[in-house]
Design a protein that fits this description.
The chain is an alpha/beta fold. The protein folds into 2 domains: about 1-15 and about 70-115 and about 125-200, Rossmann fold (3-Layer(aba) Sandwich), CATH 3.40.50; about 15-65, thrh gene product, domain 2. About 45% of the residues lie in helices and about 20% in strands. The chain has a 7-stranded mixed β-sheet with strand order 4-3-2-1-5-6-7, with helices on both faces. It catalyses: O-phospho-D-serine + H2O = D-serine + phosphate; O-phospho-L-serine + H2O = L-serine + phosphate. This is phosphoserine phosphatase. Belongs to the HAD-like hydrolase superfamily. SerB family. Pfam families: Hydrolase (PF00702).
């Protein structure tokens, strides 16, 4: 039995931090896991900038309320879920993901938690588990599933590498160049066909 494991941001929905950077006019917040492979370093950097500007969870959630899935994403996900099991494995946070999951038809998502003070300040975060994407794929495999994985960033590479088949989707030219062994797609139809073919 197969499970398809998908990244969220950049694959199914726009990058939340980039949208928030544009909404606030703070370009430093545009940095994502495409740019910084060290997630702890990236999140501490983001939290520092939020503190510096007096921004908290409320302001980010207001931006998220206006974010829609990428064009064609829900249709792709509906089609894929009708074909087989799908889990979204993301390094985002439950406080961010909720409204987006509603717009995607409430798929299963494994993500992390923000630590938020009573005044709404984001003071830290809790990872669901260490190396969450790779650990989750390994756990699924230990339960007898074969995994197929797709994502766009550095933090997706471990789960892609560990899976029976792995695909890059709308990634950067640099990642495509450094990881030519993984087919790279730009369109949902092509990714869907590759996932279906990998299960034969």
């Amino acid at each position: 039995m197969f499970v398809t494991c998908l990244d969220l941001e950049g694959v199914l929905v726009p990058e939340i931090w980039i949208a928030f950077a544009k909404a606030t006019g703070i370009p430093e917040l545009e940095k994502t896991t495409r740019d910084e492979p060290d997630y702890d370093k990236l999140m501490n950097y983001r939290i520092g900038i939020l503190k510096e500007h007096g921004l908290g969870l409320k302001e980010i959630q207001e931006t998220i309320a206006g974010i829609d899935p990428l064009p064609g994403a829900k249709e792709f996900l509906d089609k894929l879920r009708a074909f087989g099991q799908v889990i979204i494995i993301s390094d985002t946070f439950s406080q961010f993901a909720g409204p987006l999951m509603e717009k995607l038809g409430m798929p299963t998502i494994f993500c992390n938690e923000l630590v938020v003070a009573d005044n709404g300040e984001i003071t830290g975060y809790k990872m669901r588990c260490e190396k969450s994407k790779l650990t989750t794929v390994r756990a699924l495999q230990s339960c007898g599933f074969e995994t197929i994985a797709s994502g766009d960033s550095f933090n997706d590479l471990a789960m892609i590498e560990a899976s029976k088949a792995g695909f890059l989707f709308r990634t950067t030219d640099a990642i495509k160049k450094d990881y030519p062994q993984y087919p790279a797609f730009e369109e949902y139809d092509d990714l869907y066909e590759a996932i279906v073919e990998a299960q034969k």
